[in-house]
Amino acid sequence: MSAIIYQTIRERALLAVLLLIAIPTVLLAQDQQQNDKQHKIDQLISAYNQYGQFNGSALVAENGKVLLKKGYGLANMEWNISNQPDTKFRLGSITKQFTATLILQLVEQGKIKLDGKLSDYLDTYRKETGNKITIHHLLTHTSGVPNYTALPGFFQNVSRNPFMVTEFIHKYASGDLEFEPGSKFSYSNSGYFLLGAIVEKITGKPYEQVLKENIFDPVGMKNSGFDHYDRIIDKRASGYIKTSKGYQNAPYLDMSIPYAAGSLYSTVEDMFLWDQALRGNKILSEKSKQLMFTPNLSNYGYGFAIVNATLGPNKLVVPTVQHDGGINGFNTTIVRIPRDNNLIVLLDNTSQGRYLEAMT
Q1: Which secondary structure element, helix H or strand E, spans residue 266, and what is its range?
Q2: What pLDDT band is residue 78 in, cutting at 50, 70 and 90?
Q3: Short-list 182, 195, 187, 181, CA closest to 105
Q4: Sheet holding 342-348: strands in order across?
Q5: What is the DSSP code (8-state) at residue 178?
Q6: Which run of H or E residues covers position 22?
Q7: What proportion of the chain, given as a percentage, has pLDDT over 90?
Q8: So which residues are the catalytic ones?
Q9: DSSP type of residue 288
Q10: What is the mean pLDDT of residues 239-263?
Q11: Is 275's pLDDT higher than 70?
């Protein structure tokens, strides 16, 4: 009996030794696989950069862990300062998902209703149209309110001028409806401008203060905020446009114009924190996230587009939650793959937006 016990002990000891040998080998193989992926991604983005099709910062995460975060090209061409993972870029319309989040937080608090009318919350808005438009319509670009950035001559004649929120709404976000609310989709910055005004009216605080208190501080997004041209913002990228004659400084834009539709800046690192926060319940409840990520007309949810991406020769269909941004001198994209906890963030400061989808 003792011989059998001794043999069993020896077998178990041998098995334990083999496991101890095998575990580091498995870990090394996993590390090598991660390094190979990182190298291939870096090669791809570097190629786009070398061909003048991407100049910015990138972050790619797999299974909730960062595979790559790196800057490519220059944050400031006049001083030859390189882009880095903590370089701050204007986000453009990626801002909309943050505005939508603030609205959903107010819904959770019972302070507004998604089927509530625009006139219920902005009592100075023209009643004949405000009584037809719901908060849901504004969030989903189905309100019929004309898009102010599409107005003839808007950028040439208006975009350099500072505006108070109420003044801008009266002049540029109160036009006759283009269609009956809810009947069709038409992307409208005006709708999200109005949502920002509602946030201010309900909370009694400036939009950017509510953002900081309700999202940026709780998530730990210390390198994100409302962009102000006159403020000194550490590590802020300059915006450029690429022309046939080379790069030029992007035209000036007063940031009171994009406001709640496109005024924010951030980094790829902070956008990763944001992605991870959306996977928990600290910022939004499961019910609110379900509403945010439910596709409506043209597959638009609340501040996000819900798109099935088709990948590879086998046409693999991958559900994604994403949004692009474009603003003078900057183009951006965030693509979330919730099923696999994967993320792609590309922030470009040379208006090279037409290449971002192919890169993604």
Answers
A1: strand 264-266
A2: very high
A3: 195
A4: 65-72, 56-62, 342-348, 330-337, 316-327, 305-311
A5: S
A6: helix 2-50
A7: 87
A8: 93
A9: H
A10: 96
A11: yes
Q: What tokens appear for 86 in the block?
A: 């903590």
Structure tokens at 295: 């596709």
Amino acid sitting at position 216: F
- Measured CA to CA, the distance from residue 141 to residue 208 in angstroms comes to 22
Asked if residue 260 lies in contact with residue 95, where contact means CB atoms within 8 angstroms, the answer is yes
CATH topology of domain 39-359: Beta-lactamase (3.40.710)
DSSP string covering 138-155 = HHTT-S----GGGSTTHH
> For residues 113, 116, 121 and 124, what is the CA-based torsion angle, rounded to 10 degrees?
170
Angle (nearest 5°) at CA 260 between 357 and 230: 100
Nearest in space to 138 (alpha carbons), one of 120, 105, 159, 115: 115
Query: What is residue 312's predicted lDDT score, i.e. its pLDDT?
Result: 83
- Cα dihedral 279, 281, 285, 291 in deg (nearest 10): -10
Query: Looking at residue 311, what is its pLDDT?
Result: 84
**Strands annotated E in 51-147:** 56-62, 65-72, 74-76, 81-82, 89-90
What confidence tier does 159 reach under pLDDT thresholds 50, 70, 90? Answer: very high
**Positive or negative CA dihedral for 265, 268, 270, 275?**
positive
